[in-house]
Amino acid sequence: MRIGGVLPSKPGPRVIHYDKRVEAMKNLFETAKIKHLAPDTLEVTSKTGLTTDHGVPVPDTDNWLRASDGTHTGPFLLEDQIAREKIHRFDHERIPERVVHARGSAAHGYFRVFDSRATKYTTAGVLTDPSRTTPVFVRFSTVQGARGSADSVRDVRGFATKFYTEEGNWDLVGNNIPIFFIQDAIKFPDFVHAVKPEPHNEVPQGQTAHNNFWDFVGLQPEASHMVMWAMSDRAIPRSYRMMQGFGVNTFTLINGEGERFFVKFHWIPELGVHSFVWDEALKISGQDPDFHRKDLEEAINSGAPAKYTLALQILPSSREHDFPFDILDATKIWPEELVPLQEIGEMVLNRTVDEFFAETEQVAFCTSHVVPGIGFSDDPLLQGRNFSYFDTQITRLGINWEQLPINRPVCPVMNHNRGGQHQNRIIKGQVNYWPNRFQAGPPIPKENGGYIEFAQKIEGMKARVRGAKFGEHYNQAELFLNSLSEHEKMHLIDAFSFELSHCDDPQVYETYTKLLCAVNMDLAKTVAANVGGQVHSSPTRKPHHEKSASLSQGYYMPKKPTIKSRRVAILVADGFNGAEVEAMKALLKAGGAVPFMIGPRRGKIWPAGKRLVGRLRTLTVEDLQGQRSTLFDALLIPSGQQSADTLVASGRCIHWVREAFGHLKAIGAVGEAVSVLHRALKLEVTQLEFASSNDTAVTSSYGVVTTGKYNVGSIATDALEIVTGGEAGFMSNFAYEISQHRCWKRELDGLNFRVAY
């Protein structure tokens, strides 16, 4: 199973160790932006003593200056500048949180294009020059919830990328879903008010399962396509590293001949597109609300940086009106069958932030920030975003927000803007305007790299209208549904049923189940039956039955199976097979997975036999009670009679197995440990097949992999690749099941519903 380098061992779940090796690895990938941040970065050590903000050494930070006779306390003295500064600074630490996308995580990295193939479309060096390594900073986020909400809620995820290019900052401000709820930016306040907690009681937080959201989208048919995506598995991603990113809006590219092209931007993750199951996402919201934030940090610090391919959909201006939909409508995709993707480069996120507030919280993005060669279209949502985002950043961070270290370009910045709160630059000279007698700070002409807008011809009448094609709202909603796999359709129905069942106003859920009739009658009838809704007596439009393969998450499965960065829980108790566990851990690490030892107690667990040193040393484990199966991608139980007996008798262990089975995860067991699976699953799931004892043959049944023995010969067989079948070893079969993310056949055949978890 040699598929990658051996990763540093991890002593326990979510324990990130910042040692010299991690710092050395970070230094290898320093970009121009990291070096640019260095003068503004201060490391706190035992040698950096306390001072006030004006640099005076502080001798005592624990006691306010007061009047005292030395025995009894007395009143505070207002003259204590040290205490007053400490309290004043604390009182003003917070800035206004974002209205949307408040909950976020971020990382540094770089972007490179594969070659110069995009030169025929654009003059933007960041998209055409393969000799460049462009620093990037990416912030992922949820939309609805506050800063303190959970990561795993059902929601759209923000995917905002700041490219620090040689020509200035380019902000690609997107989401993990390619469309949006509204067509015109003027509706944005209405949408956000509706999706946010209801005004009379500030409930609910971090979810759309409430009257106001469904009232709004039920009365706004243009949202029907986006609602389908939001109720799909796309809205509960397993990881930021396992979701797509989209620019959402239609932008333009301009080439050296002055020709304009329409473009949509796509990020495609290296690891495929994967999601939680809904019950799992609900539980993680309480068990580990910071799951995605920790996942990103853990992967980077474990040597598994997040990687994405940048792909473009490009249309010449002459084809703008060639489609049944308007290409400027942000509630519509461009189906890949009509406009294929062109992969042009790769982004790697390989460095965590040094301080969350200064970087993740203060980073600010604007859709209007583009560089020469990239421009805007008449997309009515983009037009409004270009106004709104800049205004938002001024409110949060002040007019000089672009001077903050994380927002500062790495290229020279010079203009005649002056003053304002928090002005950090000192600009020498006698003039601050143009033209001036010194010819100081002149405009830069096009031939020297100045930004030039495309000379677009405009004609028409002033009116509050939308294009004719903007009036169709259901064809692509049906296209999305038709394109899903069977298990994805099941999840979609469950999501609609869950959300609408939380609406207590009959007018709300009855209106929406009627609207679903325009998407698909069978979907509408099923959801209405589940939530007590109503449907029309006949379809309100003729279905087209068309599909687009790339709309299903399964389309993005890696061509070569991988278990890179997958979290595998190895369940052990005293008396486990020590040599077997060491071999399993080595093989998992060789494949890039991250194994964790879990036992009935936190601390040392002893292998079978004598208490030896060396390879059969004790293992330090996390406990079953403190961790949960939801936090791992797979479950593995090694052999050992005493260990198996202990785990069989543990109700918590049995629940772990049942829950992992219910969540469709890969489960493996060897020898005596198979009895744990019998105890947890055999009575309820009679279709499952298990390996017989004392047999080295491997049995793989519904994602559950077992074998009677795991000896030296089996280990040798496993040192090959991730494959499945009788010729492959136990760990190769187990790794293959992990690489599939989940065993959907287990769900389609109804096995998971027979187990209480």
UniProtKB/TrEMBL annotation:
GO annotation, biological process: hydrogen peroxide catabolic process; response to oxidative stress
Key words, A-Z: Heme, Hydrogen peroxide, Iron, Metal-binding, Oxidoreductase, Peroxidase
EC numbers for this chain: 1.11.1.6
Major enzyme class: oxidoreductase
Sample GO molecular function, one term: metal ion binding
Domain Catalase core residue range list: 51-442
Active-site residues per Swiss-Prot or TrEMBL entry: 101, 175
Binding residue positions for heme: 389
Gene3D superfamilies (alphabetical): 1.20.1370.20, 3.40.50.880, Catalase core domain (2.40.180.10)
One Gene Ontology cellular component: cytosol
Source organism superkingdom: Eukaryota
Reactions catalysed, as given in the entry: 2 H2O2 = O2 + 2 H2O
Matching SUPFAM superfamilies: Class I glutamine amidotransferase-like, Heme-dependent catalase-like
Cofactor needs: heme
Family named by the database record: Belongs to the catalase family.
Physiological role: Catalyzes the degradation of hydrogen peroxide (H(2)O(2)) generated by peroxisomal oxidases to water and oxygen, thereby protecting cells from the toxic effects of hydrogen peroxide. Occurs in almost all aerobically respiring organisms and serves to protect cells from the toxic effects of hydrogen peroxide.
UniProt protein name: Catalase
Biological source species: Favolaschia claudopus
Lineage of source species: Eukaryota, Fungi, Dikarya, Basidiomycota, Agaricomycotina
